[in-house]
Protein: DNA repair protein RadA
Amino acid sequence: MANKKKFVCRECGFESAKWLGRCPDCGSWNTFEEVNIKKDNYPEAFKKSVLSQPVLLNEIETIEKERVTSGIKELDRVLGGGIVPGSLILIGGDPGIGKSTLMLQLGGNLGENYRVLYISGEESARQIKMRADRLDIKSRNFYLVCENDMDAIENCINEINPNFVILDSVQTVYIPGLESAPGSINQVREVTLRSLRISKEKGIAVFLVGHVTKEGNLAGPKTLEHMVDTVLYFEGERYQSYRILRSVKNRFGSTNEIGIFEMREKGLVEVESPSNFLLSGRTKNSPGSVVTCTIEGTRPLLIEVQALTCSSGFNIPKRQTYGIDYNRASLLIAVLEKNMGLFLNREDVFINIAGGIKVTEPAADLAVILAVFSSFKNKPLLEGLVVMGEVGLSGEVRSVSYPEKRVYEALKLGFSRVILPKANLRDLDAKLLDKVTGVSNLIEAEQEAF
Structure:
């Protein structure tokens, strides 16, 4: 009897009974690959789970698993306080961003007290040893194997019985029983499924390193992210020193935390004062430059909002943003024109968040508006000023979360004055009020800022 076949989109995992030129789910062209359908395609452990008997929720005994410290504070912060035994963690990023370096440093730290198995499908043992020497990694319980065969990898895990496994990368590993090539939809999904079974059965924390496509998504089906417990993205410009580790999914902690690293000659170094780091190189008394405070998880970060306006040579002026949502910026420019009497219909407007940070919370609205206003008027804001507040469509300045934490961060970095929404003044400690000015609309904010 001939094997049945199906077609799977390699970008999103959508399945079809026939070949399609364009994927109806993700819209990608020429991404369908032919895959054989096998009935006996899943591990025995997953077959048995189907026959499990239902139990009452109140009768289930829970065991509180203590988190393991990775030795990298920024990584622990993003993971929610440390590594949970038996978890499956996926870390993705652009080529050359430092994923393997971070994992090698992690393995070196854990190898001091635990057995760590580092599996490389891309480099030779000698290459990894050279990098380990450069990073000064000399752990006694750090095991290394260069292998692409998932069956052989599982045998190594059974033989060594490690506490932690690092697989670099999931796209290079294959299962011999599958006909598709390494890195294909079927292979990546099945390798992740096998890794999931290993982590849950043995209580091993498994780190999977994944490549990122040119669109910025993890290569492989979207279901890959649903199968793992935690998804981390390693971001930053390849030719700049800073790196940002961001959590987009975490079953054991918050997804709002970020970790900031700096790439140096001897590996990744944690940035102890992110606000100071993000404001380094800032030019004082410069039109179009405004400092605001954003909250990433539980951490306040001071960032610089930059704006530049210049005469447009086209009938339709250009609007371009980096680090802030384009639609949000367009809305704020419209509010600025309506409520402050500026005419920007002949001006190109460029807005940038310095340092590579992506701002999603509305507390930066007031800073964006004042930065554009400052650039258009060619007039800098008062020295030592930090601005924050959400702006509504009628020009009102609305309250922000954690105002006291933001003010303390600004004062700690040497800033002397803070502009806040008036609604937040009642939430502040009385000793901070002489450092804070409350505003209720854009006109008041302009009067206090210049």
Notes: The two ends are 80 Å apart (CA to CA).
